[in-house]
Amino acid sequence: MRHNECADAKKMLVDKMGINLKIADASDRFLANLAGKTDPEQKRKIIGNTFIDVFEEEAKAIDDACAATGGQPIEFLLQGTLYPDVIESISFKGPSATIKTHHNVGGLKENMKLKLIEPLRELFKDEVRELGRLLGMDDELVWRHPFPGPGIAIRILGEVTKDQVAIARKADYIYIEEIKKAGLYRQIAQAYAALLPVKAVGVKGDKRTYEQMICLRAVETSDFMTADWFDFPAPLLKKISSRICNEVEGVNRVVYDISSKPPATIELE
Ligand code: XMP
């Protein structure tokens, strides 16, 4: 998850929408399963499988509690899969190659016991946003930038460790905070900071540093199938870069990704 995301999601879903939510913190298990893994597709599969294992265990615990009081067992897993996730994960009716195994499409376990429901599976993001607006959902939810199923792990290139997660989260938080302060959040379809595990030389104070890089990504798109990089005002990029280098330990360089999709994709892995 992103920085503070569990608490924010809880606020939105429980406090604002009255949903009965149980949060399972399985971060140590995800990190243990990802240890030493660097291949993007392998990372995606491990995260998808771990997610379902945790989900089934939690569902069983709720089932057991329900059974004790005569309630119904849990049958379904509801996911917010969108059409681009489907197109890019499977090739159906034609030669479109698998680009990435989207966690919520091809990354799920084959022997999963829960039945899957994906009501948004044939909609694009702009259609989902319109639906949310029509249903009177909170603006903050409707305009929230998408976050990939496999989470921040695919925004940390190479091995995912607790320390790397902390760096990526902090940089991402600063980046999004500055975008919101500048009033640009809704003009951008998706923005995030990724951690590149390459080191470069720098200088902080009077000391030499040899630290990693943060890659900023921001795109404009309506369907997420193609995308253009967002043209930030240079002073804002300067401010973001300076804040990240000063406030995030272990980072001495910030780069801005100026690749469109295609040939790049929106996420780095
Ligand atoms: P890409 O990187 O393929 O991303 O250009 C297109 C959109 O899909 C999101 N994305 C995912 N969403 N599960 C999801 O629900 C996933 O596994 C996944 N991978 C990428 C990505 O954030 C972007 O909005």
From TrEMBL:
Indicate the segments forming the GMPS ATP-PPase domain, all copies.
1-144
For this protein, the record's Pfam families field holds:
GMP_synt_C
Among Gene3D superfamilies, the record links this protein to: 3.30.300.10, HUPs
Q: Does the keyword Ligase apply?
A: yes
Pathway, according to UniProt? Purine metabolism; GMP biosynthesis; GMP from XMP (L-Gln route): step 1/1
Can you cite an annotated GO cellular component? cytosol
Q: Which UniProt keywords apply?
A: ATP-binding, GMP biosynthesis, Ligase, Nucleotide-binding, Purine biosynthesis
List residues traversing the bilayer. Answer: none
- Example GO molecular function term? GMP synthase activity
Under the heading InterPro entries, the entry gives: GMP_synth_C (IPR001674), GMPS_ATP_PPase_dom (IPR025777), Rossmann-like_a/b/a_fold (IPR014729)
Its EC number is 6.3.5.2
Q: Which PANTHER family match?
A: GMP SYNTHASE [GLUTAMINE-HYDROLYZING], GMP SYNTHASE-RELATED
Q: What is this protein called?
A: GMP synthase [glutamine-hydrolyzing]
